[in-house]
Specification:
The chain is mainly alpha-helical. The protein contains 10 helices and no strands.
């Protein structure tokens, strides 16, 4: 408790239940921070992945977009309907009847037809493909135009230039090309419009994504700062609840500092400097007066020294285990060699 005048209350020994309750509360706060940190790690990864993707030219986007279906299927339906009217004018011509349905090779007694014509085409097949709703439908008018030309090209290829079917196909193809020339400006205009829309859409999507990622990065940075502040509050709370360090504990702390590695000793001196701005950590000789340090600094040093010494002990133990393992391997090898020599003796 803190008195009304704001001065720290004198340290008193808390009851066991009170200490346990405070420990549980502290543990819950730490668990909450760990959970938040896990979420922030995933956010940081998302931000890093986005800017890595942008750096390598993908703009942080995965696949998709553009393509045949993306470019044409949204704006072509009306144009296809207009093209369908053009097709009806061709198919209603008196010479169009040979090309309306697939070639019946059995009825016409032309068994070699599919050997000569590898890609058969007719107007009924085109019509069915135009009406399909799945991915096998036409995606733009130029595809339909290509199949119409294929119908007449097949007929002229299979039949010689004196054959009536060849002449009918040639005549209808000329009529179709004339109508196509009048229709082509509409197709080109629509294609240009769609490309412009697609370009704007991609740019807008990319910009929107980048804005979202930038906001995510800022929010993540703000939350990291909040976590750092919370950790500092918890650290101060824990240290404040610690009792006053005894003279013997200070002596042991000083002895522990002497056993630290150079790197860990520098880190320990930085802890002292945090509460003592005038403390020189880079001096050739450092005189550390334990009695002059605050309780916060002393307990922070105690926690740090304990962890550092445990870490050093684990590393040393690992090296000892490795040496012992190596010695066992050498002894085993020598024993096997000696055993082989004994067996070779007469």
């Amino acid at each position: 408790m803190t008195p009304a005048n704001g001065a720290p209350a004198p340290a008193t020994e808390a009851a066991p239940q009170e200490v346990e309750s405070e420990a549980d509360a502290f543990r819950r706060q730490v668990d909450d921070l760990v959970s938040k940190t896990d979420v922030l790690e995933r956010r940081v990864k998302e931000v890093v992945d986005f800017y890595d993707g942008k750096k390598h030219g993908s703009g942080g986007r995965k696949g998709g977009g553009g393509g045949r279906h993306g470019a044409y299927s949204r704006g072509m339906p009306d144009l296809m309907r207009q093209f369908g009217v053009l097709l009806k004018e061709i198919t209603s011509h008196k010479d169009a009847w040979p090309f309306l349905e697939p070639v019946d090779v059995v009825t016409l007694h032309i068994p070699d037809y599919h050997k000569i014509i590898t890609h058969p085409m007719d107007f009924s097949t085109i019509q069915k493909k135009m009406e399909r709703k799945d991915g096998s439908c036409y995606t733009n008018v130029r595809e339909i135009c290509s199949d119409v030309r294929l119908i007449f090209a097949n007929a002229m290829k299979y039949n010689d230039d004196q054959n009536v079917i060849h002449l009918m196909a040639k005549s209808l193809l000329e009529k179709f090309e004339e109508k196509w020339l009048h229709f082509l400006p509409k197709v080109e205009s629509e294609e240009k419009r769609q490309k412009e829309e697609e370009s704007k859409g991609v740019a807008a999507t990319s910009t929107s994504r980048e804005v979202a990622i930038a906001k995510l990065a800022k929010d993540t940075d703000d939350e990291l700062n909040q976590i750092n502040r919370k950790l500092e509050e918890l650290r101060k709370m824990v240290v404040h609840r610690c009792r006053k360090m005894t003279t013997d504990e200070k002596r042991k702390l000083g002895a522990g500092l002497c056993h630290l590695s150079p790197d860990d000793l520098n880190k320990a001196l930085e802890i002292v400097a945090q509460d003592n701005p005038s403390f020189q950590t880079k001096a050739e000789e450092v005189d550390l007066d334990m009695d002059a340090q605050s309780e916060t600094t002393l307990w922070r040093l105690k926690f740090f020294v304990r962890e550092a010494l445990e870490r050093q002990a684990n590393v040393a133990s690992g090296k000892m285990d490795e040496n012992a393992k190596r010695k066992r391997e050498i002894c085993n090898a020598l024993a096997k060699t000696a055993s082989k020599r004994i067996k070779k003796q007469p």
